[in-house]
Design goal:
About 30% of the residues lie in helices and about 30% in strands. The protein is α+β, with helices and mostly antiparallel strands.
């Protein structure tokens, strides 16, 4: 598995646009994020706050990865498996949202 980076906000903006994140959940309500974290204590997620259409959104990510395959391997390694499939997505849109803040 490829190394995850921390802290996500500062390093996410430093990563190449061809990197990937594993997004677990995104919500405007911080309580939703906290509930998710309590329901999945086996994870060590990282929290990003981004601006989307003038509203603050919290994005919980498993980490950042140098390739799609590395992100897939990280998702496959989650035990017990999650009830909903995380979203493996390019980091570029998240980087743009962080840089715009």
């Amino acid at each position: 598995m490829t190394e995850k980076t921390k802290p996500p906000a500062s390093q996410a903006t430093a990563l190449a646009n061809d990197s990937y994140v594993v997004q677990l959940i995104a919500a405007r309500n911080p309580e939703t994020i906290e509930r998710y974290k309590q329901q999945h204590p086996q994870l060590s997620p990282q929290l990003l706050t981004i601006d989307k259409n003038g509203e603050a959104w919290q994005v919980l990510i498993l980490g950042t990865f140098s390739s799609y395959q590395a992100a897939q391997a990280a998702v496959a390694a989650i035990t017990p498996p999650l009830s909903s499939q995380p979203w493996i997505r390019p980091i570029a849109p998240i980087r743009q949202a962080l840089e715009a803040q």
